[in-house]
Amino acid sequence: MKILVTGGRGFVGRAIAKKLIELGHEVETLSRALHGRNK
């Protein structure tokens, strides 16, 4: 299943995305850049 996780760079969002990937889902994340730069 394709799933969008908002806040994927945060602590909770990152953990949720990781678990969903482990379960075999296709995950996309969406986060706002607080400092204007993505890492």
Description:
With 39 residues, the protein is an alpha+beta fold. It has one domain. Helices cover 31% and strands 26% of the residues. It has one helix and two strands, in the order βαβ. The protein has a two-stranded parallel ribbon. Strand 1 (2-6), helix 1 and strand 2 (26-30) form a beta-alpha-beta unit. The longest helix has 12 residues, at 11-22. The mean pLDDT is 89.
Question: What distinguishing features does this structure have?
Answer:
single chain, 39 residues, alpha+beta, two-stranded parallel sheet, 1 helix, 31% helix, elongated
Spell the H/E element sequence: EHE
Rounded average pLDDT:
89
* Widest β-sheet, arrangement of strands: 1-2
Low-confidence stretches: none
What proportion strand?
Answer: 25-35%
Q: Supply the helix-strand structural class.
A: alpha+beta
Figure out the total of helices: 1
The major pleated sheet works out as: 2 strands, parallel
Helix content: 25-40%
How many domains? 1
- N-C termini distance: 26 Å
Secondary structure: elements and pairs:
Layout: E1 2-6, H1 11-22, E2 26-30
Parallel strand pairs: 1-2
In summary, what is this structure?
The protein is α+β, with helices and mostly antiparallel strands.
